[in-house]
Amino acid sequence: MSAVDIDGLTKRYGDVTAVSELSLSVDRGEVFGFLGPNGAGKSTTINILLGFLDPTAGEVSVLGTDVTRDPQSVKARVGLLPEAFEPVPNLTGREHVAAAVETKGSDDDPDALLDRVGLAPEDASRPADDYSTGMFQRMALAVALVGEPDLLVLDEPSAGLDPNGVRLVREIVREEADRGAAVFFSSHVLDEVERVSDRVGILQDGELTAVNSVENLRDDLGMGSVVSATVDAVPDLDPIRAVDAVTDVSADGSTVRVACAAPGAKMAALRRLDDRATVADVTIEESSLEDLFEAYTTDRPEAGDGDAGDGATGPGAGAESATGDEPSAATAGGDRT
């Protein structure tokens, strides 16, 4: 079942079109990475998704509810971690979480939520406006988790966190998805998006240029991977070049590098190399999400099957803020529940 259904979404600000005919679906239990350069339309899309803005045209349904008709019932089932969230002065971390629990009418234990995000009890008792960036981010994540939301919208959730905190965010995101929640994950740290997302969507100039798993996006662009093998002696490389989907083969000293445009080519090329030389060591370099992001936002390729505009859904199926790169009606302190 879909948690998010966007059909033909368009948003204009006067003569400026921020989002144009965007169609997208996100399933329950799916982690969806939402990417795009500044000004691409991400913030506008997220704010409409949350009911902070009305669309100019198109339909947006969240958890089976039309956002424009009943935004409050949607907000009650959504957990939001915005990039710009201001603490209430002199309120402790525990009191922030307790206020969210009361607002949502849930029976969550604030201390248990704060413990889950790694905020120590002594810090939970301190005013949140005295927190470091990382401590504040942990508290804000605890607030987003109140009420076991059916949809989590996480905007730059790793901001200010140390490596242990970043790892914890990844674990929590996967736990929430395993629970059945949909996670709309937006971050500038593309490595984190790649590690945690089932699918990513790339927005450019208000239009969705690609929606797919990272692996399938690699295949669509033919970027694939590079296999580097250390051999006892470099053999004739022509038989390896003849392997289907091998795009380039080169040798440097005792290292043979094979560029592969499809996953199946890696093992086929290695087997052919192993038949002709003794392979001592192998490493595989995959094209990163950063490489893909640059390709899709610079070269603007046509979306492949199951990509932009068709509302593709399903696993195998977080990059700007909910209040960042376009005009916004969202305020961090208000409608976050």
H/E element sequence: EEEHEEHEHHHHEHEHEEHEHEEHEH
Residue share in helix: 25-40%
Main β sheet profile: 6 strands, mixed
* Count of β-strands: 14
The global form is: globular
> According to CATH, what is the topology of the largest domain?
Rossmann fold
What does this structure look like?
The protein is an alpha/beta fold. It has two domains: 216 residues, 3-Layer(aba) Sandwich (Rossmann fold), CATH 3.40.50.300; 63 residues, Alpha-Beta Plaits (2-Layer Sandwich). It has twelve helices and 14 strands. It has a six-stranded mixed sheet. Strands 2-1-4-5 form a four-stranded antiparallel sheet. Strands 12-13-11-14 form a four-stranded antiparallel sheet. The radius of gyration is 23 Å and the shape is globular. The two termini are 23 Å apart.
Fill in the keyword field for this structure.
single chain; Rossmann fold; alpha/beta; 337 residues; Alpha-Beta Plaits; 14 strands; six-stranded mixed β-sheet; 31% helix; four-stranded antiparallel β-sheet; 12 helices
Provide a compact summary of the structure.
The protein is of the alpha/beta class. The protein is 31% helix and 27% strand.
Topology, element by element:
Blueprint: E1 2-13, E2 16-27, E3 31-35, H1 42-49, E4 57-62, E5 65-66, H2 71-75, E6 78-81, H3 93-104, H4 110-116, H5 121-124, H6 133-144, E7 151-155, H7 163-179, E8 182-186, H8 190-196, E9 199-204, E10 207-212, H9 214-221, E11 225-231, H10 238-241, E12 246-252, E13 255-260, H11 263-274, E14 279-286, H12 289-298
Parallel strand pairs: 3-8, 3-9, 6-7, 7-8
Antiparallel strand pairs: 1-2, 1-4, 4-5, 9-10, 11-13, 11-14, 12-13
